[in-house]
TrEMBL record:
It comes from Falsigemmobacter intermedius. GO terms for biological process: Gram-negative-bacterium-type cell outer membrane assembly; protein insertion into membrane. Keywords: Cell outer membrane, Lipoprotein, Membrane, Palmitate, Signal. The keyword Heme does not apply. Belongs to the BamD family. CDD domains: BamD (cd15830). Part of the outer membrane protein assembly complex, which is involved in assembly and insertion of beta-barrel proteins into the outer membrane. It is a lipid-anchor. It comes from the Bacteria. This is Outer membrane protein assembly factor BamD.
Length: 280
């Protein structure tokens, strides 16, 4: 059970429907929240979430429950719903704050996995633009890892794993973007440094074949044929069906070279480990 359905289970159906209907007839300005019971304010939050989860005032009402009835069972329930409501409204900082307060105040409680997941996706949902600050991506990865490792049997673990892989791929994509920028401008050493990061640290991502091909291009431009051949050898062994291998093969053979491991250096280490299985 996730999202709105998760939150709705906190209030008995009859109570929620009755209170929401009664309060709905009043304007928000006329409500004296301080004179209301925690359950009544909570029901107002539920009403708002049902009415429009992205634009309603659900988070505001859940925050009032926490303020007016601290340390109560209703406050605990409202806190995680506050995180959910703010996330739905794309108020990511407020969502993270509420989720973290829940985790700090109620560690090990039933909704800890949900709170941690809300914390993680409040970072994750801000990294869709590859040009943004990668600090958010690192924070999303850290928070998603907690879901995966500390709540492996929760209903959120699978989604967290998928998002972790996508965020990891995103970081590799950023390195590729910068590397291609340097390559286009003839800054080959700077480009190589970026592509190396992808090959060594993000080798499980979808960007590795292109990174190896760009290394072939960069090393050939610098006249470092041994390194270019070794990059081509790794590319051909692991990604022979990739169009990037075809491009690298044509570049190498066009200069009378072949994709075989030559010379020394960091690519030889990668070759020994990934192709020959030699770690020492």
């Amino acid at each position: 059970m996730t999202g709105w359905a998760k939150g709705a289970r906190y209030v008995a159906a009859v109570l929620a429907i009755g209170l929401a209907a009664g309060c709905a007839s009043k304007s928000d300005e006329s409500l004296n929240l301080e004179a209301m019971q925690a359950s009544e304010i909570f029901a107002l939050g539920e009403r708002e979430m049902k009415r429009d989860p992205r634009k309603g005032d659900g988070g505001k009402y859940f925050a009032e429950v926490e303020r007016l009835y601290p340390y109560s069972e209703w406050s605990k329930r409202a806190l995680v719903m506050q995180a959910y409501a703010f996330h739905q409204q794309k108020k990511y900082e407020e969502a993270r704050s509420a989720a973290q307060r829940y985790l700090d105040q109620y560690p090990g409680e039933e909704d800890s996995a949900w709170a941690q997941y809300l914390l993680a996706i409040s970072y994750y949902d801000q990294i869709d633009d590859i040009g943004k600050d990668q600090g958010l991506t690192f924070q999303a990865l850290q928070a998603l890892r907690v879901v995966i490792e500390e709540y492996p049997d929760s209903e959120y673990a699978r989604s967290a794993t998928l998002k972790f892989d996508l965020a990891f791929d995103h970081l590799a994509g950023k390195e590729m973007e910068i590397g291609r920028y340097y390559l286009r401008r003839g800054h080959y050493t700077a480009a190589i440094n970026r592509f190396r990061v992808v090959v060594e640290q993000f080798q499980t991502t979808s960007h590795t074949p292109e990174a190896l091909h760009r290394l072939v291009e960069s090393y050939l431009a610098l006249g470092l044929t041994g390194e270019a051949q070794t990059a081509g050898a790794i590319l051909g062994h692991n990604f022979r069906g990739s169009p990037f291998y075809d491009d690298s093969y044509r570049l190498l053979t066009g200069r009378g070279l072949s994709p075989v491991a030559e010379g020394q250096g960091w690519l030889q280490t990668v070759y020994r480990r990934t192709i020959q299985g030699k770690w020492l």
